[in-house]
Amino acid sequence: MSFDRPLDLVERPRRLRRTESLRAMVRETTLSPADFIAPLFVIDGKGAPQPIKSMPGVLRHNVKDLVKECRSLHKLGVPAVALFPKLAARFKDAEGTHALDEDGLILRAVQAIKSAVPGLAVVTDVALDPYTTHGHDGVLTPEGDDVANDRSVAILSEMAVLQAQAGVDIVAPSDMMDGRVGAIREALDNAGAENTAIMAYSAKFNSAYYGPFRDAVGSSKAAGTRLLSKATYQLDPANRRQALNEAALDEDEGADYIMVKPAGAYLDIIRDVREQTGRPVAAYQVSGEYAQIHAAAKLGWLDLERCRHESLLAIKRAGADLILTYFAKDMAKLLG
Ligand code: PBG
After folding, report:
1. Does ligand 1 come within 6 angstroms of the Cβ of 131?
2. What angle do the packed helices 180-190 and 241-253 form, to 10 degrees?
C-alpha cells in the first residue's frame, strides 16, 4: 500500500502523546513521597554503618544513625519507616527468646525514633526470623520438622504488645501463621493498645526474591536446606485464590492494611486484593527486586533511574496505596 493521503481514522491515540505537556495531562498514575514506606535495618552498638553486599546503597545503622536517617526521610516527606533488626549470634536461639526482651534492640530503636521524630510513623515486623538460630519466623514443633503454629502465635502476640508499648504506630506480622492477626488484635486491645494498627503481610509468597534480605538480617544460615524452606507457611507462588483467601481472613481478623509481597512479580495479586478489599493495600518491593535492578544497572544492561521509576509505577498502577521499597529515599529526593 503506497502512502498518498492520511488514513481515514476516527481515532488517532497518538494525538494524546505528542508532547510532554499533552502526555502529562492524561497520566493516570503518579508517584509521590507519601506513597512510600522505607524499610530500615538496625544494629546494636556504636559502630559505623554496615553495607549489605547484595543491596547496594542500603546500610545497617546503629540506633543513633537510624534516628538521623529517620529525620531526613521525614523531611523528604516519607511518612513511615519499617524496622528490621540484625542481631549478633549470641542473641539468637531456637525459641527466639530475645524477641520478648524488654530491652531489645527494636524496642530501643522505636523509642529513640518516636522521641526524636514523633511525626514519622513507625512500623515494626512481627516475626521471629531475626531472633531464631534456624531462621524460621516462628518456633519449631517438638519433632523440629515444621513451625508450630499456635505456639508461635502466642509469642508473636506478646511481641506485638511490647512493640506497641514502645510506641510503634503499626505492627506488621510477616510470619504467615494462621490466626495471628486476630490473636495480635486481641492482645493489643487487652493491653490498652487499641490505637496500634496492624499491617498484615497477608499475601506473602514463598519467594526466592527475599535472598538479599536474609543476608541483611542474617537469617539465611540454613537457607536452601530442607528445614529452612518456608513453604509450609508462606504462599505457593502458583496460587491466586489462596492469596485472596488469606487477605479476606486477615481483614476479618482485624487487619487495618493488607499487604502483598513481593510486589513486581505479583501485580495480578495486588490488583485482585485491591478489588476485594476496602482496606488500604500495601505492596513490598522486596530486596531481590531492588538487587536485580541494581545488578543489571551495574553491568550497564539497564538504566537504574528509569527501571526504578517504572517498577514502582507498575506497583502503584496495579492498585497499591503504599509501597515498601528500598528506593524510598532516592524517590522522595527526586519527587519532593
Ligand atoms: C521475614 C521477612 C522477610 C522479609 C521481610 N520479613 C523474609 C523472609 O520471609 O524470609 C523480606 C523482605 C525483603 O526481601 O526485602 N519475617
Report:
1. no
2. 20
